[in-house]
Amino acid sequence: MSTNHSTEDSITDSQEITNSPDFQQRSTTKIKSIFDKWEFKVDSIIPIYMGNIYDPSKFWVRIAPISVFERYLTLFYERNKMSLCVKSSDVCIGLNCVLFKNGVYYRARIVRKDIQNQNKVKVFLLDYGSLNNALLSDIFHLDQSFYEIPAFAVRAMLTNISSLDHGMWTANVVDKFMEYVKNKILIAKIARVHKQQKVIEIHLSDVDSDDGDGMPTINSCLVKDRLAKFISKHPSGSQLQQIMKIGDRECILLKELYYLYPSFETIENGLVPSTVELKEKLQQYVPLDVIYPDLYEHLF
């Protein structure tokens, strides 16, 4: 990532920035996704860098490495973080911010407030697609210089497959999918682009899996493992949009689309358990109707 000004020039009086009317107005302005700036073409092949995985139908990817951007973000906040602290009175849903975790700074958006502890929030990481619980002491205001840089996480789903019974993906399927992609060099062939929902459907492959007969897709590997099945009828954009409306009495969801629940928006807004929280609940044998009451209320 290149910038039009030097690092020294862009590190300004941050306290003055956060107190300005323009900053206050922009602090909850939604940062655009790189999806809006990149032309995703059907049948094109692109490199993939995995972000958060919820299940094979809902995960987030990056289409380019962001190490240069992360170094710049780190340099800026190492110098300015003390003047960019977020107070409890600043907290609101949708506030753009930066999370400091395990020595790394991440762009984020506050999606939930802890009603029992005003010093705790849940944030969505804009460049990774994951949710994190955080203390306010680890949260900082996002400087205006980082607003114009699009969020790097892109919503993605494996194309042409569903869960075996069209129900929700099980924990063992998600674990196997993670095993297939962890620490791998990945490429994707784009099958469909859902512009309104900002989702790409992809055939995903590990470049080191070529056995001489070509690279098998991870989509087909999950089917071969009897963890998924091929489908001939693909979800439309309007059907993906319908997943968002679960909980509305007017919503009629086809049974063969249950594997698409919950929606990307529901996950990103912290309205369902995060990937880590979901795994913990399933390991504790918490029933799905307790985890996803909206869905089961809709079903029954």
UniProtKB/TrEMBL annotation:
<feature type="region of interest" description="Disordered">
    <location>
        <begin position="1"/>
        <end position="24"/>
    </location>
</feature>
<feature type="domain" description="Tudor">
    <location>
        <begin position="90"/>
        <end position="149"/>
    </location>
</feature>
<dbReference type="Pfam" id="PF00567">
    <property type="entry name" value="TUDOR"/>
</dbReference>
<dbReference type="InterPro" id="IPR050621">
    <property type="entry name" value="Tudor_domain_containing"/>
</dbReference>
<protein>
    <recommendedName>
        <fullName>Tudor domain-containing protein</fullName>
    </recommendedName>
</protein>
<feature type="compositionally biased region" description="Polar residues">
    <location>
        <begin position="12"/>
        <end position="24"/>
    </location>
</feature>
<dbReference type="InterPro" id="IPR035437">
    <property type="entry name" value="SNase_OB-fold_sf"/>
</dbReference>
<dbReference type="GO" id="GO:0005737">
    <property type="term" value="C:cytoplasm"/>
</dbReference>
<dbReference type="InterPro" id="IPR002999">
    <property type="entry name" value="Tudor"/>
</dbReference>
